[in-house]
Specification:
about 40% helix, mainly alpha, 2 strands
Length: about 180
């Protein structure tokens, strides 16, 4: 029976997973002792610090020996190598089997839509392909214009009624003041 040979990407992700199990969880010194200290790693800098001095029985500190496997470095969790794309020409140069596109943050809506369309044609994985809002249907826009034309009339009626109520309140307050003086 012949077995399928795993692709280099799958091998790299497996190697990364194995290495991660061997790596300790790097905790901030004495975060287990004081609740005010978060567990997120901070480099110890004190003269007598046990973690900095690498004293036996104290947690390990991060160093180069814990680096991930060379074949897995720079890979996206999907297994593809990320390539930043600025225009449609750059997306056509991407290798479908090994690379995935990430649209640069400086790209605008129009060019982003063109890049996404081209990427779908070429069946390229785009890591940050969020859809832009599509234009509304023409029927809805006509209804919106009708309601928009109706609204100013309603607003004018509302403002007139507000003015009238304010005038009534002023008259009432004047009459109350007149009755208090007498």
């Amino acid at each position: 029976m012949t077995e399928k040979k795993p692709t280099p990407q799958v091998d790299a992700l497996r190697a990364r997973k194995r290495a991660k199990h061997k790596k300790p969880e790097f905790l901030r010194q004495e975060s287990w002792r004081y609740s005010k200290l978060s567990e997120s790693w901070r480099r110890p800098r004190g003269l007598d610090n046990k973690v900095r001095r690498k004293i036996k029985g104290w947690p390990a500190s991060p160093n180069m020996g814990y680096k991930g496997p060379k074949i897995a470095r720079g890979l996206h969790p999907s297994g593809y190598k990320e390539v930043i794309v600025h225009n449609v020409e750059e997306i056509s140069k991407i290798d479908i089997n090994l690379q995935a596109a990430r649209i640069a943050h400086t790209v605008g809506k129009r060019k982003r839509a063109q890049i996404i369309a081209e990427g779908r044609k070429l069946k390229i994985l785009i890591l940050n392909a969020r859809e832009t809002k599509k234009e509304k249907e023409p029927e809805k826009t006509e209804e919106a214009t009708k309601t928009a034309s109706d609204k100013p009339e309603e607003k004018s009626k509302k403002t007139e009624s507000k003015k009238e109520t304010q005038k009534k309140k002023q008259k009432q307050s004047k009459t109350k003041e007149g009755s208090k003086k007498q």
